Amino acid sequence: PAPSSVSLAAARLGWPLQEIEVVSVVGRPLATLNARLFPGLRLLVLSADGDTPVQVAAALRARGFGASRLTLLEHLGGPEERRLDGLAESWNLPRGADLNLLAVECLADAGAQLLPPTCGLPDEAYRHDGQLTKRDVRAVTLARLAPLPGELLWDVGAGCGSIGIEWMRAHPACRAIAVEANEGRQDHIRHNRDALGVPGLQLVAGHAPEALAGLPTPDAIFIGGGVTVPGVLDACWAALKPGGRLLANAVTLQSEAALVAFRERQGGELLRLTVAQAQPLGGFDTWRAALPITLLAVRKA
Questions:
Q1: Whether CATH 3.65.10.20 fits 5-106
Q2: Angle, CA 73 vertex, CA 72 and CA 79 arms, to 5°
């Protein structure tokens, strides 16, 4: 038995282990780091090779964390052990040893876009073409989906991927599959999943219900579009695990009617969500309401 590199690094830095987050980019996309960037957080990044430190520094600058303090620890516990310190904004050290670990003390730049770990991210955090579950409705939807560590979500008619992305941001072990037929929106999903730190979000290009065949059995399903397509609701319900949750949103009368008919067969709750914002009207302000959303929430027996 021997101390791990994480234990050795914490000892060298004087950081309590219980206050550190460990992020591995060994065999994983560097974009994984984006979901762990919060002011004041201390990270230990397990590097893939000697190029990782400069890549991490560049990623921190791109996300508005150039002020972060970096400590490169090479060959920990060995005779060639070495420590190098610097800031992400000015990190220009040559390629070092492949066996290294990078410590990051996250400090945000002035004006950085800070995103919380909770659901309901700002709409502007996403690249989209208008097919986006808006922030307040998204927060209610995720609360009803209730992600648990290790669970798998199907996001059917995923749009820009916001529901699946925030499901995965709830816990590193959460998994999601986004099903989307539109090529432009598929590009938005690829961009958003990396920018928001969940590159493991699986994208399935195709139309439901055909694209659902052969996918791993989900613990929860969200249908953001396509509830009026014949077979979509029934295929999703058949695939769902016992005890699983199905949520579907509707805006049109036709999609709402489909949810009402499904509820008559399978039970569940129907909710009507209306969000209004205060906006100018002449010299005064008034309420401007968005289109109401009907939400079906049902748990499979």
A1: no
A2: 145
Query: Tokens standing for 136?
Result: 């307040």
Residues 273, 118: Cα–Cα separation, whole Å:
20
Q: Please state which CATH number belongs to domain 123-300.
A: 3.40.50.150
Token reading at 276:
């209004």
In the chain, domain spans: 5-106, 123-300
Largest CA distance in the chain: 74
Distance between CA atoms of residues 263 and 245, nearest Å: 13
52-63: b (≥16 Cβ within 10 Å) or e: bbbbbbebbbeb
208 phi/psi in degrees, rounded to 5: -80, 145
Write down the pLDDT at residue 134. 94
Taking residues 113-142, what's their average pLDDT? 95
The DSSP symbol for 172 reads: T
Name the β-bridge partners of 281: 284
pTM exceeds 0.85, yes or no: yes
Handedness of CA 128, 222, 203, 166 (dihedral sign): positive
Residue 44: its pLDDT value, please? Answer: 98
- φ, ψ of residue 280 to 5 degrees: the values are -65, 145
For the residues of 80-119, what is the DSSP string, one character each? T-EEEEEEGGG--PPP--SSEEEEEE--PPTT-----SSS
What residues are paired with 295 via a beta bridge?
A: 249, 271
Distance CA 143, CA 204 (A): 24
* pLDDT reported for residue 2: 83
How long is the chain? 301
